[in-house]
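Hi F.,

I've been meaning to write this up properly since the lab meeting, where we talked about keeping a consistent format for the predictions we share between groups. The idea is simple: the sequence comes first, exactly as it goes in, then the structure tokens exactly as they come out, then a line or two of notes. No screenshots and no reformatting. I'm using this chain as the first example so we have something concrete to point to.
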Amino acid sequence: MINDGSVPRLFGTNGVRGVVNSPDMDPRFALRLGLSIGSLMKGTVLVGTDARTSNEMLKSACASGIMASGCNVVDCGTVPTPTLQYAVKTRGVAGGVMITASHNPPEFNGIKCIDPDGTEMSRANEESIERRFHTEDFALASWANIGTMVADTTVIDGYIEGIVSLVDVDAIRRADLRIALDCGNGAGSMASPRLLERLGVRYVTLNANPDGAFPGHNSEPVPENSKDLIDLVRSGGFDFGVVQDGDADRAIFVDDTGTYQYGDRSLALGAYFACRENPGGLVVTTVGSSRCVEDAVAANGGRIMYTKVGSPVVARAMIENDSVFGGEENGGLIFPEFQFCRDAGMAVAKMIEIVAKHGRMSTLLAGIPSYSQYKAKTRCPEEKKRHVMEQLAADAKGGRVDTTDGVKVFFDDGWVLVRPSGTEPLFRVFTEAKDPAKAKRMAEEYIDKVKALVNGS
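Output, unedited:
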């Protein structure tokens, strides 16, 4: 079944999200979505949650719907999203469901579906679920074939062992590193401290108790929410710090000098060493990533491929093109040797290995070019978006243009990306240049261009 536009879309870039106990995310909604999910998956389904206060309520409702369709449910408890994805991939089940709103404020929650290979659900399968949801085309089981639910608290163990098997633990232990870890009161609290202990590093934790009210700081790992971690690293004696988002699929690093490193920088560092270990390898990222990633790839003779925004898009492009590394600029790193999804646990382990083998994080990052970015937005009616993009591409006057996701125009010392919002009547404008003032000027110039095209001049 295909969503041809006749039914409303439920799934966004990363699952369905809404304010808890609003019509978009209450037990009735979760039950209907569970019925739709179970009708598609038809087998054993693993279910996990992040640490949000509504996790048990929504999990129970969604799991009821899944069981009503005849599927058996394995309740994996509070776990990072990549932990559940790894369990789905390695156990050969029909799929998974993660109750999470990732980095959103505490009043939100969400439902994310996982395909049998552990990747975030394909759009085609999401469309099938949406159609069943809106038409109530549920495959209800007979009373004798209703599914059951059992608990399994061992999935974190398997996940940690899987990560450990792919890094040089001996080299890590010889380096005697000390790490500062901020779990953000999220699901990473359940796995990341145990991973660091297993790797044999010394560590200090912040906000490592799961709490859906996020008392330490909001769950988005942006600079203003990382101040305590930055201060801790600056106090001395740490090789680096790391802060995770609410469901621990993204990790942002603070280097040994206490400098917050945006996700582009860790993506570039990972790409550099992936291409060093795999000469000629392909790295996949989105059109919104910094040019420093391309520079790092080129430094080791690698190749780069740009995709539309969204980790599922990146992951599937990596699978199809045999990529050696990939990810997004928001701290979502994807390691294909482990699994095709964003994974903060694997990112932490690989960064520890890189520092253990190659030196201080600040020194390594100093070898990767830096750029300044600027972000802005301007309104545009939906019916004019296509015309605006066509004109911007045509006006590039022979310059390099990428229309993978919006219009990205490259210059000798930077780029501009004008991308239409998928949910609002506006364009987002992203620019990058060596000079911060130039990045701002380019953004203002393209904002004016969009306004002129919208107004017909």
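Notes:
The mean pLDDT is 95.
The chain has 15 helices and 20 strands.

If this format works for you, I'll send the rest the same way.

G.
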